[in-house]
Amino acid sequence: MSDSFQQPAGAVDGRPSKVRYFVVFAAMLMAVLLYLDRFCVALAEPYIKQDLVLSTFQIGFFFSAFFLTYALFQVPSGWLSDRYGARIMLVIYVLAWSFFTGMMGLSYGFVMLLIMRAAYGVGQAGAYPTSANIISKWVPFSARGTASSIVAFGGRLGGAIAPILTAFLIVLFVPVGRSSLISDDDLIDAPALCTRLSPVRESGASPDTTSNIADRPVAQPAERAPAIQRVWRLLPAETHERMDAVARQFRPVEPEIKAIEEEAKILQRTWHFFSSAEKSKQADAIRIKLSRQDRRHIVDAFNQIVRQSDFYRKQDFKDLELDRFATRSINRIDQAKRWLGKVQ
Questions:
Q1: Per-residue pLDDT reduced to its tens digit, 224-248
Q2: What's the predicted TM-score (pTM) here?
Q3: pLDDT in tens, 134-164
Q4: How many CB atoms neighbour CB 290 within 10 A?
Q5: Residue 100 is assigned to a structural domain of this protein
Q6: Same domain for 124 and 21
Q7: Which of 125, 203, 214, 218 could join 199 in a cystine, given CB atoms 3.0 to 4.6 angstroms apart?
Q8: Whether residue 141 sits in one domain with residue 234
């Protein structure tokens, strides 16, 4: 007799047991957790990259490791579920991918992070094949489409919850006593920052002939966002000189670096990882390096203006795309200022 006409597990007097509803609900919760764990890492990617000092190539390889093992272990994991039982194997799969998701947070280097990500893909590979096995045994043939749709909906629900819950947890677990000031490690791409803020533009004149900041060619205000102009005006003159010097060095090589990085991304998407790594090394070789002293000076200068109570002005920063937490905090600060003004 084919599986399509077998009685569902737990059937009483030929009728399906009500336990099947719990089974489908449990499978749906599994799918919620599946996509929740899958998407949360993508949202935390900027913090992972900064914390472990990873390159764009390494981050791409990190994400690719999951899909590679996830695809390769679909069939073996389904076979294990048939061999040793779907219930016990599904529990093992859930525990395995949850464990390796947690271990990614404890990784102290790229190799460990990559191994945990690949192992995480192995754990998740068996989720849907095993849940399909369970549904085929507990749900009548005529209702399996509905049951599978409910499980699939759980995955989409987990994907929708992931951004909200991940952002909330990231903020929640930041130590309350942690300083909001910038550190040296926060200055990830200092040359690009200097180039973005500096108004200096080369116009046929040698850098040595325009040593005075007031005499240098300046971009028109329309070319620079109000927020950038605001930050630049608040920085001291010595910082202007240092950032101008970095911008002059970086602007000629910036297009070349971007072109090489684009080539590296294309090679990475076509699975030419070693060629992509070589391209990334080429970009790093021509990238401008700031001295520790210059980095420290720029960081101190930014911290000085951040400490100023009048640093933020809504009309200057309204065009920036800020996250909701930052916007909410700014609104609270504005409300507090208005309240203090009324009291005084």
A1: 778 888 888 888 888 888 888 888 8
A2: 0.55
A3: 888 888 888 888 888 898 898 889 888 888 8
A4: 19
A5: yes
A6: yes
A7: 218
A8: no
Number of domains in the chain: 2
Distance CA 89, CA 159 (A): 24
* Cα separation values, 218 from 59, 171, 193, Å: 37, 39, 17
Record the tokens describing residue 91, joined without a space. Answer: 């529990």
| CA 122/CA 129 separation, integer angstroms | 13
Maximum Cα interatomic distance, the chain, rounded to a whole number of Å = 96
Of 172, 197, 223, the position where a domain reaches its end is 172
Eight-state DSSP code of residue 18: T
Q: Which domain holds residue 303?
A: 187-311
Last-in-domain residue among 172, 198, 226 = 172
Residue 195: count of CB within 10 angstroms of its CB:
20
* 149/194 same-domain check: no
- Give buried/exposed letters for 143-178 (b at 16+ CB in 10 A, else e): ebeebbebbeebbebbbeebeeebbeeeeeeeeeee
Assess whether 7 and 138 both reside in one domain.
yes
On average, the pLDDT of the chain sits at 78
47 lies in the same domain as 70: yes
In the structure, what pLDDT confidence band is assigned to residue 201 with cuts at 50, 70 and 90?
low
Q: Does one domain contain both 207 and 163? A: no
User: Nearest to residue 200, comparing CAs of 228, 231, 240?
Assistant: 240
3-state DSSP call for residue 323?
Answer: coil
Residue 164 sits in a domain of what CATH number? Answer: 1.20.1250.20
148 lies in the same domain as 249: no
Phi first, then psi, for residue 314 (nearest 5°) are -55, -40
Q: What are the structure tokens assigned to 75, written together?
A: 């069939």
Q: How far apart are CA 148 and CA 282, in angstroms?
A: 49
pLDDT in tens, 291-300: 888 888 888 8
Helix (H, G, I), strand (E, B) or coil at 278: helix
